[in-house]
Fold each of these.
Amino acid sequence: MDHETPRRPVERHQEAVRDVVGRALTAGRRMVQVPVASLLTPAGRPGAVRLTAADAVAAADLPGFDNSQMDGYAVRAADLAGATASDPVALGVAAPVPAGTQPPPLLAGTAAPVMTGAPVPLGADGVVKIEDASPPVFPDPGTPATVRFTAPITPGTFVRPAGSDVTAGDVLVPAGTVLGPAQLGVLVAAGVEAVVVAEAPHVLLVSTGSELVRAGEPLGPAQLYDANGTMLAAALGEIGCRVTHRIVPDDPAALRGVLTRAPDDVALVVTSGGVSAGAYEVVRQTLTDAWFGHVAVQPGGPQGLGTITVGGGRQVPLVAFPGNPVSALVSFELFLRPVLAAATGSTPAHRPAGRAPLAEAVDSPAHLHQVRRGRLDADGRVVMVGGPGSHLLAHLAAATLLVHLPPGVSRLEAGDAVDHWEFR
């Protein structure tokens, strides 16, 4: 297809993918209640991303009891009211309070050694740091002892009151929040046993090509390992999708069979290969209800998008990428990753973007949005990694940036600024 043939602009295709895929995922997303404990292991967290679908409410106060903020002495503030450096107050040392023990009430005229996080005894209303006591060490447990204090304290000093962080019934984690380490920690601390989450989208990923062999299997003549399936499965999992991966030859019956046997909960079909205008373009030739055409981008010009029938007649969106490996992954980054990341709550939904000067001049087809692979040098300039070829997989692996050369530009000189996305 020469450049005179009308091509869909990149921005228009991005909008089309958002409309077809985003709308379907929003409408068909299942909400499930899962035990919090099941989210604490990788096996319970497909794609390591879970998004709450309802507010998670505290089942208990946090902290659940008044506890000490310091290692020190639990005291009655009234007992220290007249303490001065020249006239210290002496109190008898009560039984110590380690963390995890329930102490007896504190008697007037006594001070109880208390550890950080341990309960403050009933009757005590403040804690004096061990460094501010005389002597500044705890006596051996069970040994009669006296401790002196040289200053009064305000009630509440170094005491964490029950419920000061969270009160039972408070919303801990609002709906639409990604459950990361901090969110899981507070759910456990506040006694929440289960949460309602949006189920991870199930993607049927289909690599097409009679030459493809799964990683680890022996290669025959003129065969290739399926790098596309590996890359796209990893990329989908990284943003919170569950993936079922299949390889099919360039045979419409084989592709139709995989779609007919799709798992019942598949929400999206993604294919690689078979979308151009050649003689063996199995995706384009089989899925005739979808749109197939060219987008004004390099690499990744041939694209497909639509709604297809899978399994027992369900309609799900299709996103079809070209078969060259760099084209497939760049297409995923440009068109599909932002839509899926927004649906799963994966952050950031968009790759961090920047702008920097070129270290060297580059040429680009003026009629296309070219996406080159690059990195920043020690001076903060963009250096291209490899050429524009869509087969240069090793160069893609070595790059840390996707560099955007906009349409309408045929050459940029060293020092000209370019936009880039971080890509690691």
Amino acid sequence: MKVAIIGAGNSGCAQSIKLMQNGHQVNLIKTSHSLHDDNFEALLKTGEIKCLDTTDNNREFALKPNMITRDLEKGLDGAEVVMVLTQSLQHRDLAGRVGPLLKDGQLVFLIPGNMGSTQFSKYTKGKHIIYVEGESTPYDARIIAPGKVEILFKNVRNAVSFLHKDDEKYLPVVTSLFGTHKFLRTNVIESTLHNPNMIVHTIGAIMSASRIEYSKGEFWMYREAFSPSVWNLIEKLDEEKKQVIKAYGGENAINYLDACKWRNEEDLSVDSLQVFRNYAATGGPKGPASLDTRYIYEDVPMELCMLEKLAANKGFSTPVASALITIASALKSTDYRKISYDISDVKDYI
């Protein structure tokens, strides 16, 4: 298929490589100047993405996308699938720019979704656009030099949700992209709350704030942050998450460790905590290097705040999530509740 990827950072470059290896044609589109501009300029200059693939015996190679561009209209033209791989903080702005350009029959796949499809759909009324949301990308990656991405880890299973239940028949199209997206969540709320970043990124960064600032880039979060007492906190946040999922009809309210094992481990008989420890030892990346990190400025408003607001909409509280939001807001002198979607933004879909 012809796939347009919006977002040319770590994830956009890595998923582009894997899509091309799977026989798809890729248009890679950058829509901002906020991050990774030097990387994008290198891509434009060479016309290719260089890759170090640690999931394939550290093989080094390069592949050429069909197109590398900042021109949204040109990049989207003729695409059967549009993948949105930007930070979810950008969804509200992107929706107004991308939505009017979408054509009947296109499938729009947002990873992480974080209910962003509800924003895009406001600009495509009267068109049949198939909206699907994912929780995490099939490949973890990082840019290691301008124009070069290192692929670090592959999820063995991924789940998705469709904004409209009638569109679940398009799951085979989604599966054909990477082969891992074979499983359905009940709805986009369930997908949003099963984004693993809501649990480990927020707690790992907030509870390690002084360590992050002191270490100046030498903080290995997955190895250092999750002590027994912090696991107690994770379990409490997990309970709040599961309560909200169930309140909105979700059928897959599982805890973080079991969800991690399900994504990352072929053998589901292995102990869930051991799977996490294996990831921390072999695949968990270093970082963050400061508190100016998406672990806070994206994952707190787009995930924790949505958890809190969805719970309040059903008449109950989330004291652990609310405390984490308040602490993060104080740490960064930012009201993350104001950045998050209001319930009115998503009310048509909950």
Amino acid sequence: MHSPTHIVVQLLGTTGVFVLGYYALVNAYYLCIHILALFELRDNVREASWEQPFRRFSSPFYPGIALVVPAYNEEATIRESVQSMLSLNYPELEVVVVNDGSTDATLDRLIERFDLEPLDAEVPFDVPAEEIHETYRSTRYEELFVVDKANGGKSDALNAGIWLTEMPLFCAVDSDTLIDRDALLQIVKPFVKRPGTTVATGGVIRVANNCIVEDGLVKEVNLPKTGLPGLQVMEYLRAFYSGRLGLNRINGLILISGAFGLFRTDVVREIGGYRHDTITEDFDIIVRLHRYLTDEDREYTVDFVPEPVAWTEVPANRQMLGRQRRRWFRGMVETVVTNRKMLFRRRYGRVGTIIFPFFVAAEMFGPLIEGLGYIILPIAVYFDVLQIEFFIMFFLLTTGFGIFLSWFGVFSEVWSFNRYKEPRQVLRLLWYGVLENFGYRQWKTVIAWQGLFEYLRGVDSWGVMERGGFSSESEEDI
């Protein structure tokens, strides 16, 4: 009969082997996705090099787009963001800013900067959103429409904008986002090529911290100094130029960033708009579109376009970043639980049988199991249950392979639509790819566990995200 101590020691060894095997499987998944991303990126680069430059307003085939911009306490960045959107090159554009019960001067900044005047028209009673206090139209920019409503959260604000626009497409844009001048012309391409089947497209999000902004446009691209914003640059490159490109290659995209996504207005209305009881509406809306359109036996595509870019200010301190990432993790768990019936269901094709299950394994359980590995494997080695080689292999699978994937993202960036053109910037990107695996990566596993505990406790708050505003002069100091 084995003693309790012996059983615990054997359990440690079994768990350690499981953690190692699990992470080997997860990294094999990531490697496949990154390889697929290379082929997808190659095709996109070739296509972009052959296309003729767009002649402004020369084509009648571009569908109208409404930029729906939820804004809650965004006085620091709202003017630059809206100005950026009004400066975009697109034939038929409406900018719909939804002030979601801000308690700061967000609405006042908009009224002053853009000469807003109230509209006499009554708001339809069937808008699925909190009470709308007032609607405004700019006397300087006819395409600017502002909705002032009671606070209901981001999803509620998006729904107000979706139901109040008459445009066939809408672009969900965060109010702290700056969009490149030609980005809409690029992100709309799948809708122009496949107007009957395309329901959503997403572009690339890049880090705006330390970039130089003039008149709402990014004029000079700088990398943040070494620190949290710099590490997030590496994360964003890897997520967009590898992860989403790879999934797009096999028509399995299940996530479009809430900061820059384009959708068919009528289809989103069909599914009831954005859910009010979710805190990661960008993930939830795409999964629900897959589910609804498959259940309806309708042909459709969800696309990722790597050329268009939107810039966002990322958290610059650990407290704000921790709140953001805990919220992201809680929302991911909530969306997975809500749509769990899609898992391993042949009815939902490769999304249900392959993409969604592997996403859950890698993105939801992956950080949790990795965090356990950092604790269990050293203990198992200490008690001679596992050899030191097991821990070394785990370290290489996490840290070593993590560096490889990060450098893979840098290669994709330099090879394709490179925004960081100076050699010293590329070297700093490579350095970020190393640095994020020592301390930052391990901290994120702790955040994942905290996010899980918050979900189990029923925490559903967004938390306060303070904005510092965009730089108007260079702060780069290398």
Amino acid sequence: MNTQAPRLALNLLDGRSASAQPVMLQISEHSAQIIRRQTGDLLLEIPLKDMRKQMRWPEATARGARIVELTDKAPPEWEGAQLHWPSDQDAKVFDAWVAQHVSNSANPSAGWVARAQQSWRGVLVAFVLLVGVIWGMYLYGLPVAARGITALVPQAADQAIGRNALQQIDGRWMTPSKLPLEDQTRIRERFLAGVKKQYPSDTPQIQLEFRKSEIGPNAFALPGGIMVMTDELVQLVKDDEVVLGVLGHELGHITRRHGMRQLVQVGVMQGVLSIAFGDYGSLITAAPLILGSMAYSRAHEREADDESIAYMRAAGISPLVMVKFFQAARNYKPPKKDKDGNDLPPSAEPPAEQADKPKEVKKTPLGFSIISSHPLDEERMEKFRKAAGR
């Protein structure tokens, strides 16, 4: 036996004996040998070419035990055995010995990954890269994936979800419309005529419903081509072209399948968060899920505004009508009761500015942009002014 071969004193836990056995680990020119320390008996010899397969070496971390494990590639009776560096000994001695006598191919601490892990600069770079990848996936990856998944979902699914949602809404927040039938017919016909002009060859099937609501002036789109316009919004703006501009916005939600995309995106986020957080409660997972879905909603609102502009141009309506809508909505006052307890029609204070008058655009504050489901009104009004050439 080569007495000049480097040796390292370790404790062997072979899984068969309850107590640790003192051994020497020796690296010769051709093999690694485990030798019983008291008697010098050779217990195991591993050719150097097989050492990487049969022995798993620890990384030179700042803290942590130094344990050499025998893998499932080792002889069957040695699988799972461990060689422990004594905890009362300086780990740097072990690391220096391994760095000097164990080849780079078998020693994980010799690689650039291990060196980076031991450097605060390397850890910082890795953290920044990880945040960048996660943020990129959040901004671009999930929306792209949602579009792809949504494209595979048949339109029948949208229609079924939309019908079910309308039934639930009717039972909770909506009642049959009180708007005169001739007003409903006029608005519906003008709107569908504009849709036909915008999409002459592939006209989407739209089901426009009017409802009296418990939530005030509103309009919204459901999956499957269902759109709901409340009586209160029609009474608030008192202008068919403003109503049509709002419906053009909701048309964008339908043609771009925002409802289904939102369901897919929230579903994907929920799946990712459940993997990341496990069963640590709904509060942990709900916060990022809600904030994330709000951000996606803002992107959808901007897309729907683009669609509204395209609709109004096709229908011969000035995009400035949407500025009037935002002004009316901003000045909306909840309806008052008459002497008999009946709701009076909703009203809005006269707008403080003209629709075509440019106004300084306020940028969305960071905190607001995180918690809001819509872009700021000023941002959206400026967009419609520019579309009208003002």
